[in-house]
Amino acid sequence: MMFSYGTHDRTYRFDDLRTLLAKASPLRSGDVLAGIAAESEIERVAARYALADVPLTHFLNEAVIPYENDDVTRLIIDTHDDSAFSPVRHLTVGQLREWILSDECDSETLANVARGLTPEMVAAVSKLMRNQDLILAAGKCRVVTRFRNTIGLPGRMSVRLQPNHPTDNIQGILASTIDGLLYGCGDAVIGINPASDSIATTIDLLRALDHFRQRFNAPLQICVLTHITNTMRAIEAEAPVDLVFQSIAGTQKANESFGVTLDLLREAHEAARSLKRGTVGQNCMYFETGQGSALSADAHFGVDQQTCEARAYAVARQYSPLLVNTVVGFIGPEYLFDSKQIIRAGLEDHFCGKLLGLPMGCDVCYTNHAEADQDDTDTLLTLLGVAGVNFIMGVPGADDIMLNYQSTSFHDALYLRKVLGLKRAPEFELWLHQMEITDEVGMLMPPQQALSALLPGGLLAIGDL
């Protein structure tokens, strides 16, 4: 089906829905690289006008990647909830935007329609929104998940404690973990990106951190962010696996480039749930995504990178994850050139994931060759906090010395919680007070006093853990 919109001196035509979505997308260096971006701002605006008039029902009849060629498309269509779609069935994309932003549309209403919306519908409506619209709408979406603590409650924000080490040294990892805990971070997960693909290393890290968790009876979850097949082998070896991690994308071919299939994800999900390691819930999957991943694998099929990203969220929600985060600036300036594009992408991803019913976090980050700096990180971090992000990253000094990129620090989490009045996960908040890391109102105790309470022997006692 062809779409068109006429200005006073020209009519712009778009051959199909895939082209229309790409042309309507905000400027993105990845879409320019792929040769699918709008050729001018006038064409971009014309595409948005045309997109605003597209009925939502059309998205159920025209797939951006053919049904017979792609298992993600099949998943989207086959799991679509027609009953949940009913309240918005009569709307166009533009009318959906107005409905989402209206005072009558609240958190419960949005939660009820989540399964009726496809990723392409959600990507489409995001393209019609200003940044403030994305913030306002995402702030209405509340997605709560549970494992050993409760993540996503109103007025709360969690932090993934990311104690990566360039040689996977366990004492170094534990030192960073303790540092993060003393700043009140870690309620989302203690998540390590291992430097090695060794399964033995994965198991050693899992056992060391689980021993640490049990010693202090900490209500948090552990994850080693290795490939899903390594985690499954760790489960077979009876290692203490809490969460199963995997990077995912929005097309079958892109997921295959990661070495995963939907069947493999389902098998791993079932294996993790069978362990029943959660205490307050059994959400046991952790997914990471990022705009540009499909393009970098030559697996985008002419679909713009933001729509591909939204399709990844359909994969994620199939497995009821505890955590999903977009690693928004990690892939580099070829896909998100500068801070303007990174900020926009972070707000889009957070909104789209939340609207589809996912517990969205964000790794607010950039690589050292991107046109961005820590001031830009502060801006996106603050905007996401206002938008109700479920969790952010806590990296020692904001500088990941293993992955070599810039993210957010333990201090950044303190800043955001203070200026927005955000608390930690309730079970974790109580534990911090019991451990004398915080006082009765959640304020941090002096570092040396808190460290003495946690480790009476000081940092030298890490070797005994």
UniProtKB/TrEMBL annotation:
**One Gene Ontology cellular component annotation?**
ethanolamine degradation polyhedral organelle
Q: Which cofactor does it need?
A: adenosylcob(III)alamin
Q: Which GO terms describe its biological process?
A: amino acid metabolic process; ethanolamine catabolic process
Q: What class of enzyme is it?
A: lyase
The free-text note explaining how the cofactor binds reads: Binds between the large and small subunits.
Kindly indicate whether the keyword Lyase belongs to this entry. yes
Query: Where in or outside the cell?
Result: Bacterial microcompartment
Pathway assigned to this chain's UniProt record: Amine and polyamine degradation; ethanolamine degradation
Q: What is its main location?
A: other
Pfam families according to UniProt: EutB
| The keyword Lyase is assigned to this record | yes
Q: State where adenosylcob(III)alamin binds.
A: P194, Q246, S296, M402
What's the Enzyme Commission number for this chain?
4.3.1.7
Catalyzed reaction equations: ethanolamine = acetaldehyde + NH4(+)
- Entry keyword set: Bacterial microcompartment, Cobalamin, Cobalt, Lyase
Coiled-coil spans are none
Tell me where on the tree of life, at the top rank, the source sits.
Bacteria
Q: Cite the HAMAP family for this sequence.
A: EutB
This protein's assembly is summarised as:
The basic unit is a heterodimer which dimerizes to form tetramers. The heterotetramers trimerize; 6 large subunits form a core ring with 6 small subunits projecting outwards.
Function in brief: Catalyzes the deamination of various vicinal amino-alcohols to oxo compounds. Allows this organism to utilize ethanolamine as the sole source of nitrogen and carbon in the presence of vitamin B12.
The protein's matches in PANTHER family, at most eight in alphabetical order, are given as: ETHANOLAMINE AMMONIA-LYASE HEAVY CHAIN, ETHANOLAMINE AMMONIA-LYASE LARGE SUBUNIT
Per the record, the similarity remark reads: Belongs to the EutB family.
This protein is called Ethanolamine ammonia-lyase large subunit
Q: Which organism is it from?
A: Edaphobacter dinghuensis
Gene coding for it: eutB
